[in-house]
């Protein structure tokens, strides 16, 4: 059956989980999402290409980059990554989603550094004011999540599409189903036997597991308006720049606390929560975990190089 | 005598020695020069601020940045470094020397990333066509070195100024020289005793060691025109992107080979040579050392994190 297996991966690898600047061995924001072997980069702080080297991410396979906002700690790795692709003679197009302004920045940087890319970039400007579907292919779709930060910012909700039905192995033998017909049956079609009899799909297959979802919410002040958008999300990444004892600082800088991230996770019925984007003032982030878990037990603290399964 | 001691440091720390993109554990070009505790950054590839963290460089003490050319592997660390300074609430001005185009790039990046710096930057545009003195203070002076590369490029020659004379410790006791007069004597003045007698400076001091110099030559094709400019330099950093077996590729991409770097060092009577800017195709750079040393024995292969004394 191996030839029909489709990767069912849906996993997130953290490349950087610090805020603002590199400190305490942590790096600025970047994550790689793998949805059934479609590789997606989310934010791209300085040194993202190094982190990919370190963690064995095949960066050449990334076709889409989603940028939440234009603060440097979320984008300053882009010029290096984009020109390294060119040095590797990439030809496949790259699509970059971001709020307005990124294209101008990248174009001026490339022009003044004398860089001519070997592949096309398609810039797609997001509207951080509303939630809308901005992308879909056969495997997944993406919605924006309006966030409240000091500059125009949106998160992203990645939703897997309905997966193929699971064929029951014994039925292949029983009805001598030819290989060529299996993809159609996995899509839900009935089986027509040579003698004219039709076997209904329900007899041959089992329902696929339900589609999975991941929401990326960084950077943002505590904002309950996002709850209906991400309701029921399987994995939520929500920023937690400060501990709750610094709530005033969080409000002032339009960031969130670990407790607030947990509150959003709980109110949106999330399956799991990852918190990150820690302020450089915290060398040890264990208290973040304790604070968030006091409210939402299924919390993880983002760890660079670690891969989290979306289940 | 400790209160009169002046740091006599003249040393170079390599932060990155790879070309083009990070590979084989090496990083793009960046170096820190310490001339009598004046800290100078030369080129600033992506991740330079991380390398400074790694190697304990006090980046806040850097007042001058010298950029050779605008290829990404020499400048893509600037946006992150400049905004991190601001996050550290730097107020001291920063002066950046570079060929034309850098200011536009940095200003567009800062504008679009919503960054307002806490300190002023003074951009000084170099002319890569001629060698001229572009900077001097009490401690050192800097000259441009025209290089031949695919975009306008210049190296930099850093020359220490004449150092203070060395006072002979026994003379302080013999003539009961007050502390307040020592700086003037170190500058070459005679000593006037209370009884009216004048002791000539030559009796009190020894000549200082000769001024030292460092030349940074990257990126460039083999170019003998630089030899008279750097003649007699104590430490020469010259790029060596390829081994000589790839001479044609070096010529085509306007880079140099290890052998050519050694030839420039030998013909310019350099004291020592450091080669770097290695192509990512080479995992092991030992052959670079062997090739260069076959022609110029006092060659070092650049090693990230290592500090080289200028003597």
Topology:
The structure is a homodimer of 311-residue chains.
Chain A: E1 10-16, E2 30-35, E3 38-44, H1 48-55, E4 62-66, H2 72-75, H3 78-87, E5 94-99, H4 102-112, E6 121-126, E7 133-136, E8 140-147, E9 153-160, E10 166-167, H5 169-174, H6 182-186, E11 191-192, E12 198-199, H7 201-204, E13 205-206, E14 213-217, H8 227-230, E15 235-239, H9 247-253, H10 258-267, E16 272-276, H11 286-293, E17 299-301, E18 307-309
Helix pairs in contact in A: 10-11
Could you describe the 3D structure shown?
The structure is a homodimer of 311-residue chains. The first copy, chain A, has 311 residues and is α/β, with parallel strands linked by helices. The first copy, chain A, has 2 domains: 2-163 and 209-309, 4-Layer Sandwich (Metallo-beta-lactamase, Chain A); 166-206, no CATH class. Helices cover 25% and strands 28% of the residues of chain A. The first copy, chain A, is built from 11 helices and 18 strands. The first copy, chain A, has helices at residues 48-55, 72-75, 78-87, 102-112, 169-174, 182-186, 201-204, 227-230, 247-253, 258-267, 286-293; strands at residues 10-16, 30-35, 38-44, 62-66, 94-99, 121-126, 133-136, 140-147, 153-160, 166-167, 191-192, 198-199, 205-206, 213-217, 235-239, 272-276, 299-301, 307-309. Chain A has a 7-stranded mixed beta sheet. In chain A, strands 7-8-9-14-15-16-17 form a 7-stranded mixed beta sheet, covered by helices on one side. A two-stranded antiparallel sheet of chain A has the order 10-13. In chain A, helix 11 (286-293) links the parallel strand 16 (272-276) and strand 17 (299-301). In chain A, helix 10 runs parallel beside helix 11. Chain A is globular. In chain A, 45% of the residues are buried. Chain A binds chain B through residues 20-23, 27-28, 46-47, 49-50, 53, 70-72, 75-77, 79-80, 83-84, 87, 101-102, 104-105, 108-109, 112-115, 150-151, and chain B through 20-23, 27-28, 46-47, 49-50, 53, 70-73, 75-77, 79-80, 83-84, 87, 101-102, 104-105, 108-109, 112-115, 150-151.
């Amino acid at each position: 059956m191996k030839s029909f297996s489709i990767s069912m991966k849906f996993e997130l690898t953290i490349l950087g989980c610090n805020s603002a600047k590199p400190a305490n061995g942590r790096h600025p924001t970047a994550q790689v999402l793998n949805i059934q072997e479609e590789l997606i980069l989310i934010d791209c702080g300085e040194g993202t290409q190094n982190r990919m080297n370190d963690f064995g991410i095949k960066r050449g396979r990334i076709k889409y980059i989603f940028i939440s906002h234009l603060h440097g700690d979320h984008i300053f790795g882009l010029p290096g990554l984009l020109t390294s692709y060119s040095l590797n003679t990439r030809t496949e197009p790259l699509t970059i989603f971001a709020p307005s302004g990124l294209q101008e920045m990248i174009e001026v940087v490339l022009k003044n550094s004398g860089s001519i890319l070997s592949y096309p970039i398609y810039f797609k400007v997001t509207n951080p004011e509303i939630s809308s579907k901005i992308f879909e292919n056969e495997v997944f779709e993406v919605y924006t999540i309006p966030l409240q930060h000091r500059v125009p910012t949106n998160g992203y909700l990645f939703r897997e599409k309905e997966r193929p039905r699971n064929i029951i192995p014994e039925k292949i033998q029983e009805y001598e189903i030819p290989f060529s017909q299996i993809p159609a049956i996995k899509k839900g079609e009935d089986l027509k036997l040579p003698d004219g009899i039709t076997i209904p799909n329900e007899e041959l297959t089992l329902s696929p597991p339900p589609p999975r979802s991941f929401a990326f919410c960084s950077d943002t002040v505590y904002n309950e308006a996002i709850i209906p958008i991400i309701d029921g999300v399987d994995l939520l990444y929500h920023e937690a720049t400060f501990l709750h004892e610094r709530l005033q600082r969080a409000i002032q800088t339009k960031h969130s606390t670990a407790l607030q991230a947990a509150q959003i996770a709980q109110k949106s019925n999330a399956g799991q929560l990852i918190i990150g984007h820690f302020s450089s003032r915290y060398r040890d982030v264990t208290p973040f975990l304790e604070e968030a878990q006091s409210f939402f037990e299924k919390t993880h603290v983002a760890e660079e190089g670690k891969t989290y399964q979306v289940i």
